[in-house]
């Protein structure tokens, strides 16, 4: 075989392999961040009504997930239609459950807290409440701080745990970094290992997980610590 033909065949094979890898990642069969998240023992999901009807028995039976965060509320009056079912069925399968609230600047923090408290039960061995901060970056920082602080304080007072703040790099830098220095952080980074100027507690490393028991893509997360730390942190089991 002539040398240039060999080089052409090698190039074609390389391009095909790249295309195959891209297709496998696009469809959630593999995910490059799995490599970075591999050292973390404790993995879990976050879900909402977008995942539809979830077979929690299959999720638990086929995968070694330990926890799930479930969307409960948004703003002052939205309640996720799948919340109660997901909370009940995930707990039934032995998963540690927590609820998250999608923060809005369209309503007062106090009213958003009331919506969450009315919806999410106060139960032992539940994960701390989560406030999902994915608002636009053009809001007045002082107003965001005021409403978010009221919401956070109300939830901490009711549930006895400081809320976790779910953030992107943008919302963290704009609203959270200097204003909420002691809150646990759940960082979204689906491209690489997290790079924050403080420790994170949870890391959402994939938004295209393919999980038996769930018909759609689903977010996958890692806990920053060992299994015994996780149990000590969040449960009464020692």
TrEMBL record:
One of its GO terms (molecular function) is lysozyme activity. SMART domains: Glyco_25. It comes from the Bacteria. The keyword Hydrolase applies. Transmembrane segments: none annotated. Keywords: Glycosidase, Hydrolase. GO terms for biological process: carbohydrate catabolic process; cell wall macromolecule catabolic process; peptidoglycan catabolic process. The keyword Cytoplasm does not apply. Belongs to the glycosyl hydrolase 25 family. This is Lysozyme. It comes from Laceyella tengchongensis.
